[in-house]
TrEMBL record:
InterPro entries: MFS, MFS_dom, MFS_trans_sf, Sugar_transporter_CS. This is MFS transporter. Keywords: Cell membrane, Membrane, Transmembrane, Transmembrane helix, Transport. Gene3D superfamilies: MFS general substrate transporter like domains. It comes from the Bacteria. It is found in: Cell membrane.
Amino acid sequence: MPAVDTGASTEQVDASAVAPAVSKTSDAVSATSDATKLSPGDPGHGRMRLALFAAGLSTFALLYSTQALLPEISRALHAAPAQASWTVSGATIGLAVAVLPLAALSERFGRRRMLTVSMAVAVALALVIPFAPSLPVLIALRTLQGAAVAGVPASAMAFLSDEVRARHLVGAVGLFVAGNSVGGMSGRILTGWVTEAWGWRAGLGAVAVTSLLCAVAFRILVPPARHFTPAPLHPRRVAATVRAHLGNPLLMRLYAIGLLFMTVFGAVYTVIGYRLVAEPFGLSQGLVGSIFVIYLVGTAASATAGRLNARLGRRGTLYLGIGTASAGLLISLADSIVAVVAGLVLITAGFFAGHAVASGSVSHTATHGAAQASALYQMSYYIGSSLGGALGAVAFAAGGWAATVALALGAMVLAAGITLYATRRAAVLARA
């Protein structure tokens, strides 16, 4: 996906013009290496795709497994929404903190090993979490689980890039992302219905068993890594790259936009269960979990974002995402289940469109250290999720759904301000 043009310019050196002979040799070596990677028809290609789908499904089902259960957890553990929401925010904070260090470790110890260990630890914690005796213990275990899960997004894309031929990489990555989406959605729906029948601990247990089966399937299916070359750890070099990215105004705007969109998404989906189980709706826990089927709208919106870029431009697509999400927030204020569902559809579509544009721009924008640039985006993205979940619950306790909507609209106003600043800066540069 093309980069978001936020008004900054970068200088790129054409290496082939400086050293054509070296470039030709490098291209030949790269082409030879790519030819030995997996492609459709090879014995390991289908296994690789299915293995990464299972990994995505497992880990993202675990990451948000308590979100649909928050009203029931609050009731059972006598916790306010702002307290129970930390079972979600703690997990996303754990992921945000761990993703960059685990990405660096995967360079040294291997992507396949990192994926295996991360899934094993996350599933082991999942099997213990249903027996947490208190809310603080539950939050602590969920935070550790989020840190364990971080090894999957930190390694999966690089593993596919190492092992799958370049022209088939998009399809492989797409299936992994589909696993993320299906896992996030199905985990919430499964926990909702199981909780309605047997309680929230059984709901978390069902996700744990499902994720265990996915982890076993991953380990059986995943082919050996044939193209990974261990790299020595250079903490100072990584730190220097991170500092350079944080000093890049363009990347910082992209990180901020991702954080703000995810703040809205985290706030809305953390609090919506509390609203729907209360009057005037009075939905059951199973029906509340089923609301997350709206995530399928996000899959379609992500796929459409590329076509919108071609028609509206990159900043135009961001404005459309912000406007769509904001309209959904306002519509959701009505005390009508039809209005609430319609609002959630618009919020979800707007979020995924904005996220697709911002995330797809980061690696293109980074002139070096693309892995660190992507990891920093993931950090900001999940920090936004944590902030949205925690602050959205506080706002809900203070002023109900209207206060949560006001918080989310504030985040969208900030995102619009950043995009408007970029638009004006681009206009100034164009006139210069």
